[in-house]
Amino acid sequence: xxxxxxxxxxxxxxxxxxxxxxxxxxxxxxxxxxxxxxxxxxxxxxxxxxxxxxxxxxxxxxxxxxxxxxxxxxxxxxxxxxxxxxxxxxxxxxxxxxxxxxxxxxxxxxxxxxxxxxxxxxxxxxxxxxxxxxxxxxxxxxxxxxxxxxxxxxxxxxxxxxxxxxxxxxxxxxxxxxxxxxxxxxxxxxxxxxxxxxxxxxxxxxxxxxxxxxxxxxxxxxxxxxxxxxxxxxxxxxxxxxxxxxxxxxxxxxxxxxxxxxxxxxxxxxxxxxxxxxxxxxxxxxxxxxxxxxxxxxxxxxxxxxxxxxxxxxxxxxxxxxxxxxxxxxxxxxxxxxxxxxxxxxx
Length: 347
Hints:
The protein is mainly α and about 350 residues long. It has three domains: about 45-110, Endolytic murein transglycosylase (Dna Ligase, domain 1); about 115-195, no CATH class; about 195-310, no CATH class.
């Protein structure tokens, strides 16, 4: 009788144990396929949250970009983890294999992923503001106002005409929600790093300040189609500056008029009254006519030594130039070029 009772208890215990194991297994399976179900992605995706985004926008981005494993569970987890009252701006990476809990923790903690801020081939302040605001959360109007604020840019060591010299074309890691003041401070730090002792010494040797180097580099880069001509043209303009001659650079006229597409500069264009018109006013323009590349800046710092004072586009319209030391030689080059334009009916 006792043995029968023991067998019955053992059987009951086994069933209870089996039930518990099944319950635990089922719970693990459920959690693994709901709460801990990972994002399945072929590539990392990014969620962008600005001050206008609410929780619904975030859910929408996760569904559209990252194929959210379970919207219902995500909403429940976000509520339980107190995320709804801790939404932070920024750019956040969602990677393959992450769980919804991991993603919420990253979002809640504001653990942003830096973005690569890149800008090059920019002529005007308006183009710069547009390029930056396209890549960052930054407000374009606020940025433009800051760049036009004479007191603010003075604190950075520039004026409203030269402040774009501070932006050295490169790729920078920044947070997507970086504000205007932080961005300007970062660009000033990068500018100071770029203008190291070696570059400053080279600038002194040619008699220019770093800002003046950038201004001249902007003219050189606009004038040249091919980078291998940068040092030659830089040397030519420096020769003219040191002799007290006007630069007489066509790109400055285009900038003064506001039309970079002009194919032919006429005498009437040379009369435009603007401090940027180097046919009318001696010395460098008051500011750069584009944001010069590092290559153009370094070409001005290491100009080719020669006796050239004049330059004219080649009559094959290749974009290259003929250089001359005398006005007579330059006049012959210019005549051939004008004839080529006339033959092709470029007016």
